[in-house]
Amino acid sequence: MGGDESMPVDSSSPVTSLVRRGRRSRRTRASASFEDRLWHVATRVAVSLPLLGLAFVVVILAVKAWPAIKVNGPGYLTSSSWQVGNFYGSIQHTHGVAHPQGAIYGAWPLIAGTLESSLIAILIAVPVSIGTAFALTERLPTWLAQPLGFFVEILAGIPSVVIGLWGVLELGPFLAQHVYPVVASHVPNVPVLRYLRGPVGYGEGLLTSGLVLSFMIIPIISATTRDLFRQVPVLPKEGAEALGFTEAEVARRITIPWVRSGIIGATMLGLGRAIGETIAIAMVSGSVLGSVAPNLYGTMTTIAATIVSQLDSSLTDATGFALSNLAEAGLLLALISIVVNLAARAIVRRSGRLMAPVGRG
Amino acid sequence: MSLVEDAARSTAYRRVKSMFFRALTLLALAFVLGPALWLLIGVAVKAVPHWSWSVLTSVPSGNGGGLENAILGTLVIMVGVLVLAGTLGVLAGVFLAEFVSINAKGKERGVVLRTAIDVLAGFPSIVLGYVGYVALCVGLHWGFSLLAALIILSLMVVPYITKATETALRQVPTAYREGAEALGMRTGYGLRKVVLRAALPGVVTGLLIALSITVGETAPLLYTAGITNDLPNWQLIHHPIGYLTYYVWTDWNQPMASLHYISYDASLILLVMVLSLLIVSRVIVARTQRHSESVR
Predict the structure, then answer these.
(1) Chain B partners within 8 Å of A247 (Cβ)
(2) pLDDT tens profile B82-124
(3) Do A139 and B158 touch (CB under 8 A)?
(4) Which residues, at least 6 apart from B296, have a Cβ–Cβ distance to it below 8 Å?
(5) pLDDT digits over A197-246, tens only?
(6) Domain that holds residue A136
(7) Does the residue A204 lie in any domain?
(8) Which of A102, A204, B60, B113 is most solvent-facing, going by the fewest CB within 10 Å?
(9) What's the number of domains chain A is made of?
(10) DSSP annotation of A295
(11) Residue-level pLDDT at A214
(12) What is the bridge-based pairing of β-strands A104-105 and A82-83?
């Protein structure tokens, strides 16, 4: 910077002053600015820290889960018993791993509960979200559609613990008193629908969990779908209408096929959230361990809900085997949601939307 | 084929079908709005009649008391996440948008980085909480502590900030960068003074969304932050810290009615905090989109 004086030119002319500025900047760049290097280093560190964190999490999880994996074997995935054993009894050793006598763990009820509740949520959320997106983009006037769309969008931000509170104290009891009994006594005894029959319980269970999950993922799916519908060009739609298509036919044959991959991607993102949801499910599922819900109203649990509700008591197991089993369950959950999320991103990447603002538990 | 079949059907049938479709879309909207209003109004109706402002200024005691420790604790956690996750997330977003090199085929590198960040974004929060407890609280002997909670929450929300920053930076026209360089600015200086300034609304929106997630989290905090009725004391380790979601999670099924009110009070405060954060972020987006030259 201090080298300007060496220039043998008249500095009063505007042209030479421009030239001088150009030279000055080139000279400083050659001397490799400190700020440039700081940016490069700082951003590189910043991008690698969370990834190291992720690797750290996976490693810790695997290390913690290893004793349980050794003892449980592959039967863990299909067995339905969840017995922590006698924490104060004698300690046994299997494959060199210490565990309390009578400890038998099987994750099938957790896996089934996770998949069933998420499936119910998706089955409800997808048609409702597509319908909502249509209502917001095609049916309602802008002055109404805009605030309503915003309202639906921010619903994604409602803390899941608040949704759980509402689900267990208001929605569940209401459904168990006024809706489930009516449904259960009127549904015919045929395959599939049979699961809607039987005792309806008190409102904590599989169907209530699925409904609560669907309320949590509808904002994600419907906001994305609405944005996608807006991107569908108007000409094909008008052309179809000119050919005599009704509104429903335009929707089914033009609009939805146009953005199908985006809708699938958004659905997978919603599925990812439903699978990992913890607190709301822990509140409304009824939290039974070791049994699969016999019908849609039965109490159940999910992998995530089990971890949050059992972590406290697993610390009582002096051998650490209960804690290790939760790590195995967590590893399983992580694998499922990683697969679902990667699939979702692969599909969604093409549509390139900013991630929806969602909490996860 | 099927198009022809459709056309062959009677117009009346198709018209009825279309009306049915119309009705279904409105029904779907009602199915979304109904429960949402039920929830929001339900919480307000339960919380407001018993509301007393002392909830904001007293700590929990016995079967009642207030939520001062939880409100302050949640604010402390927000500030911590803003500092930790905000710094990391914004810098990581800058890296992905500005410094990722182009490979020989002309495609951008960093696929692995982006995939890993996507994985982190979808990672189940309770699993993060479990690892935080096992590795930080127990493994490093921190005990239930603010720092463990901040690290775990930051891991959770960094992907959102990174994505928002990257998207915002990519929407800044290349001409801005070229202009900065033509004026003789160095890359870093131009980034700071021109490019980041233009991307600021998007970055702030990402931060606000991350904060709204932070406010509403329960599962990762239960086993990292622990709980205490004391006011937060800014100690990073060896001291648990209170937060609002804990009281919603534990007080609703206690026998005493006074604790149910605390549960609903905490819910109401949470809703007000989260919704105002999201509304502010939305207003920022709306304002800047009006002025930007290219609306996506």
Answers:
(1) 18, 21-22
(2) 999 999 999 999 999 888 877 767 667 778 888 888 888 889 9
(3) no
(4) B171
(5) 878 888 888 999 999 999 999 998 998 899 889 888 889 889 998 988 88
(6) 107-348
(7) yes
(8) A102
(9) 1
(10) S
(11) 95
(12) antiparallel
Name residue A249's amino acid. E
A234 within a domain of the structure (yes/no): yes
Answer whether residue A142 shows pLDDT above 80. yes
Q: Which of A37, A47, A166 to mutate to test the interface with B (most CBs of B within 10 A)?
A: A47
- What's the average model confidence in pLDDT over A157-165? 93
At A326, is the pLDDT very low, low, confident or very high (cuts 50, 70, 90)? Answer: very high
Residue B206, pLDDT > 60, answer yes
Bridge partners for B102 per DSSP: B108
| pLDDT, position B1 | 45
Place of tokens 């096992």: B134
Measured CA distances, B35 to A199, A270, A360, B274 (Å): 25, 18, 20, 18
CB pairs under 8 A between A and B: 314
Question: For position A323, which CATH number holds?
Answer: 1.10.3720.10
Instruction: Check B123 against A338: CB less than 8 A apart.
Output: yes
* Phi and psi torsions of A79, nearest 5°: -75, 150
8 A C-beta contact, residue B242 and residue B232: yes
Please indicate whether, in this complex, the C-beta atoms of A25 and B270 are within 8 angstroms of each other. no
Residues with Cβ within 8 Å of A289's Cβ and at least 6 positions away in sequence, in order, are: A82, A109, A301, A306, A310
pLDDT in tens, A70-91: 888 888 888 888 888 777 777 7
Are A50 and A58 in contact, with CB atoms under 8 Å apart?
A: no
Contact by Cβ (8 Å): B155, A360: no
Q: Is residue A228 part of a domain?
A: yes
Name beta bridge partners: A105. A82
Contact A35 B263 (CB under 8 A): no
Partner residue opposite A50 with nearest CB, options B92, B220, B267: B92
Q: How far apart are CA B158 and CA B92, in angstroms?
A: 9
Q: Mean of the pLDDT values across residues B145-169?
A: 93
The residue to which tokens 């499936």 are assigned: A119
A242: in domain = yes
Q: Do A49 and B88 touch (CB under 8 A)?
A: yes
Q: Which two tokens stand for residue B3?
A: 């198009």
* B162, B86 Cβ separation under 8 angstroms: no
Q: Report whether A290 contacts A102 (CB < 8 A).
A: no
